[in-house]
Specification:
By secondary structure, the protein is mainly alpha-helical. The chain contains 14 helices and three strands. Strands 1-2-3 form a three-stranded antiparallel beta sheet.
């Protein structure tokens, strides 16, 4: 929950603009607030505008626009160094903070013309090492599903099986899964509608495994779901308390089932099931990269391209397939 009374007016205006006009998700706006709070606290410390010795106790609600106009690119570089050295932030975290600062100053200089100069315009982003996504193999995925389906002691077996099935087949995000309402599913057309990042709506097509898993769960889903602020009575997935299932509960379900299947829970997680779906579709289904981008709801194609990696077996087969492989 953002404490607007602790922010300067111009920061609250930016957050309202991001939520209302830019259609950013509440989670994204919360992150903007966190990033910019730290940035403004640092600038008060950096310019000796506070006597507070404890960084986290620095107040920013009295921060002035004239103080913003003092900030130079060098000052922002100093802040990034502070993040790296004092806060032990890695390149990815620093890059996200820089992105927030850029968006913030663009709002102030271009959107509202509140200040004249943009000190963040040419700030470079730290170079990131591209890491291949971790994912379950096809065999591990099948093992996970079999483990759930054969677990007669799990009273939520049908629900948990449907959750894992949707993750592994559709590659949806955790927030998208918990937000599904029964009315979002069009059984005749085998598709459902989800709300992704930036409150963007997209269609996810359901294969037979997904439809069967959902139908099996609906037969045992509690019919007396609670009517509350979360619209639990409309939710597809319910907790044991007959409320819309929470992200934490889904994470616990995934972790528990991974462990039962003998899979490493330090290596795999809920988000890794999304990676698994994308990788299996690309590897075995020969899905076009643009189609995969649409399916996953990625804004940039570069984000989707991490799934175009190939494993050593594919590299070996590529070499063996060379027409000169048997030439003497």
């Amino acid at each position: 929950m953002i404490k607007t009374e602790e922010n300067p007016t111009f920061l609250n205006s930016f957050l309202d603009y991001s939520l209302t006009y830019q259609k950013k998700s509440p989670a994204s706006v919360d992150q903007y607030n966190c990033d910019l709070n730290m940035f403004l606290k640092y600038m008060k410390y950096h310019f000796h505008l506070t006597n507070e010795e404890n960084f986290d106790d620095i107040k920013i609600n009295d921060y002035k626009l004239s103080d913003l106009e003092r900030i130079t690119p060098e000052d922002i570089h100093t802040f990034i160094s502070y993040l790296s050295l004092n806060r032990k932030c890695g390149p990815a975290t620093c890059a996200k903070r820089i992105s927030t600062i850029r968006i913030f100053f663009k709002y102030l200089t271009v959107t509202t013309n509140t200040i004249k100069n943009n000190p963040a315009q040419n700030i470079e982003t730290p170079k990131l090492n591209k890491r291949l996504p971790k994912y379950l193999t096809l065999e591990d995925s099948q093992k996970l599903l079999t483990t759930i389906s054969e677990d007669e002691e799990n009273k939520n077996k049908e629900r948990d099986y449907a959750i894992i099935t949707l993750f592994l087949n559709c590659g949806m995000r955790l927030s998208e899964l918990v937000g599904i309402n029964i009315s979002d599913i069009k059984f005749d057309d085998c598709k459902l509608t989800v709300i992704g990042k930036g409150n963007k709506e997209r269609t996810i097509y359901l294969n037979k495994a997904c439809i069967d898993a959902i139908n099996s769960y609906l037969k045992v889903r509690p019919i007396d779901a609670k009517k509350d602020s979360k619209n639990s009575d409309k939710a597809l997935f319910l907790s044991s308390y007959r409320q819309r299932i929470s992200k934490r509960t889904v994470e616990n379900v995934v972790s528990k089932e991974l462990q039962k299947a003998g899979l490493d829970t330090t290596k795999y997680s809920t988000h890794k099931l999304r990676h698994t779906a994308a990788t299996l579709m690309y590897k075995y289904g020969q899905v076009d990269i643009r189609a995969l981008q649409e399916l996953l709801g990625h804004q940039s194609i570069s984000t989707t391209e991490i799934y175009t990696h190939v494993d050593n077996d594919q590299v070996r087969k590529a070499v063996e397939a060379n027409p000169l492989a048997n030439y003497k």
